[in-house]
Each structure stands twice: as C-alpha cells, then as structure tokens.
Write a structure and sequence with these properties.
Length: about 280
Amino acid sequence: MTVPMLMPNGPAAAVGMDIAARGGVRTAVSACASSTEAIANAYNRLQTGEVDIVVAGGCEAAIHALPVSAFAAMHALSKRNEEPARASRPYDSNRDGFVMGEGGASLVLETEEHALARGAKIYAELAGGAVTSDAYHITAPDPEGSGAARAVLATLKQAGATIEDVKHINAHATSTPVGDIAEYNALKRVFGDLLPGIAVTATKSSTGHLLGGAGAIEAIFTVLALHEGVIPPTINLDDQDPEIPLDVVVSPREFKGDNLLAISNSFGFGGHNAVVAFRKY
C-alpha cells in the first residue's frame, strides 16, 4: 500500500470509490490552500451545470518525524513547547509559528434544486470561490498581499457581492510573524476603511494548522457561523499585534441578520491563494 499512500490523489480516489462517484474525481494539490481550492473548483462545476452534486474537502496527516523536522528547519513552527495548548496564537505580538494539526473535512455541495428534491438540510449557500497565485516565492507570501486580495475580489464578483456585504472572515491566520501581516495587508487592500467593522476569527488557534485539510474544516466553521448565528473565537490572543488592527473575535459572538455573507481564506506554499464565500440560507 506504499504507493497508494503516497499518491496525492489517494484520499480523493478512496472517497470516490466509497460513494461510487463517477462524474470525475479531481485532486487539488496546492499545499495549505488545497481543500479550499477543491471547494472553489466544485462551485465552478456546479455553476456550469457539469454536475448536480459534489463532495469536496481535504485532509492531512503529517505529524511524523520527517515533516515536523522539515517545517521546524524552516522556522515555520512555534517553539512554545512548554505550553502547547497556547502555542498557536494568531495576531498575537508574541506569535512565533504555527502548530501542526491533523484532520480532514468534506462538504456536500449541490444545486438548490437538487438539494430540495432530495429533502436535504441546507446549511448555507456557497456563493463563490476563486483561486489566484502570487508568482512571488516558493514559501513566503507576497508581503503586499496582492494575489490574496485578487482572490477575495474574484470570489465576491462570483457571489454578486460588494465589499460592503462581507460581515465575517475566517482568516488563514497561521500564527506566523510574516503570514499574519501579509494576510492583513491583503484584506486592507480589499476592504480599506471598512475592514475594522468586519468580524475576523482565526480558528487555527484552536485546531492547529491542518495543512491541506485546513480550508475544508474552516469552510465548515464559516457555514456553521452563518447557520447557528455564532462566530467561533480566536483563542490565545493576549496582546494583539498593533500592526494588525483587526476586529478579532476573542469570545463567541452573535452573528445574526439577513443576507449575511462570510468568506474563508486559505493560502499555501507556492503562492497559492484560494477563497470561498458563503451566504446565509
């Protein structure tokens, strides 16, 4: 089983066989943006009428000596080993790297007509999804956030939305010194003076960084925030970085209203940017 275990398309193929999917099994391989890109790709297939229903998501299980050592050698991981539960601290002045997590998630995405016909419970509307690239550096994000900003804007265009419509952002926010600021710069490019009024959360503070699986689980957090009317908190934020003046949600916050729109961001090594938007149903 060594070869199937090493195939990037292995998990998607396994799920496809399990559910007898014959409309084409596709694998997005874009580092930490992979599962968000998978959702964006599914959105586009649904929009073109190519399919009526798609299972989209991602997973990662990389807690092993080799990948952990490799990320540590890159100085990407937190060194707060004496306090592991408090080590992932996006936006905190004392953040020093991410904490690796493991897991996965998938979403059943389908046309409204198909969902209603089978009596499905609808949690939210997938309103848009877009992918861009930085063409900047193999591991570092574009510090100005131009590629990430373009992904947000393209997603909003697909959603038929404006920047004024966005009320919540589930940020990529991995707790790295460089990455968190780069994402802030991207959001500032897009939202400008509106940014302080948008509720931002960084759920990697609780889950760690699931790498290729991160985007899917964070998309679900975003969907549930809309469906349940509560935004999950960012934990471990003791001293917010003054260079990142966001409205960070630090305790569960009510999120209710009509026509609510939220986005979820994912960015990966290689300069991959993927963003998806969800609207309250």
